[in-house]
Design brief:
It contains 10 helices and 26 strands. It has about 400 residues and is of the alpha+beta class. The protein has 2 domains: about 90 residues, SH3 type barrels (Roll), CATH 2.30.30.230; about 290 residues, Fumarylacetoacetate hydrolase, domain 2 (Alpha-Beta Complex). Strands 6, 7, 8, 13, 14, 16, 17 and 22 form an 8-stranded mixed sheet that branches. β20 and β21 form a beta hairpin.
Amino acid sequence: MTWVEVDEDSGFGIENLPYGVFRRDGTAARVGIAIGDSVLDLAGLAGAGLVEDRGWFDSAALNRFMAAGRAAWRANRARVRDLLTDPGHREAVSPHLVPVTDVELLRPFEVADYVDFYSSEHHATNVGRIFRPQGEPLLPNWKHLPVGYHGRAGTVYASGTPIVRPCGQRKAAPSDAGPSYGPCLKLDIEAEVGFVAGVPSTPGRPVTPRAFRDHVFGFVLVNDWSARDIQAWEAQPLGPFLSKSFATSISPWVVPVEALEAARVAPPAQDPAPLHYLRTDEPWGLDLRLEILINGRPVSHPRFDGMYWTPPQQLAHATVNGASLRTGDLFASGTVSGPTREERGCLLELTWNGSEPLELPDGTKRTFLEDGDTVAIRATAPGANGTVIDLGEVSGTIRPAHC
């Protein structure tokens, strides 16, 4: 129990303690931890001598602390738990609790590199059926390796950042007509879960699944905005480029790996058995429940526990060729989708590429996003001792194109 006032149904209790970066009244940004409806100012605690700080917390990004390593992460988490549970610390700590309504939450870390995977079998199968209706939904390599691509770190934005509709080349019927240029007509979302690397790795040395906790700091929610009409034309033969690089949004709170230990479950069985470097000796599926809202109305409830490829497998594959990790490397899961329509994680699937319009609770319909639409993605997970872990929310509002 914590002496801080926390609602029973809050997902930001003592078992969570996610890290973020905040700014108050125009002051410099600094690192904090969410507890209930407050932000615990770690820079303030450090200034008062209440937590160890080696230049970690008086900063506009988590990168310094993420690079400090697992021993520092565990020690700081244990110290914060002690400060928030021992009533004897209440008088000293209370001045460093700031109402979350009084702060601006910023992008929590500087993104070094960005990788987006394609790890949901349900999503990959649906996409295959949409674009290759006469062929096999899954390509031959899909069940042998976590398919992914390198994205653009410079356009990973904080939650709440407006998203400008992208422009580009589009290909429409008849098939022999040339492409046209203009604003994206099929602007989409992708509900994803990402993890961020803290401790770098040695170039040339792969990171094994067993070493996941030694390198990965925590998890965030991701919306990988997608321009489907631009993507369909440009993605032959090399895959996504401008259709993905214009914007990716991440949530403000980074939930530590340790906070999600109670959410680990067995992932789906993998057949054929993965190659040796992808094999794990513990279950690394995560029981996360996502919710997608358009203009405040829920439209889908994907579940992350059905993802075919797990985070440690993704990390192992991304480094098996000797590519090194850097502090701030972001790895996203790919669209989280389930077996039913109510669990699909993007409008491409929810509307079957626009052929089955989605009716919102207010009676309006969507095939893809319109200017002015606001999309939010939320998620929760089971925590230790029967608690709930809230991963927060990632949101963005669509603004008109500048073609």
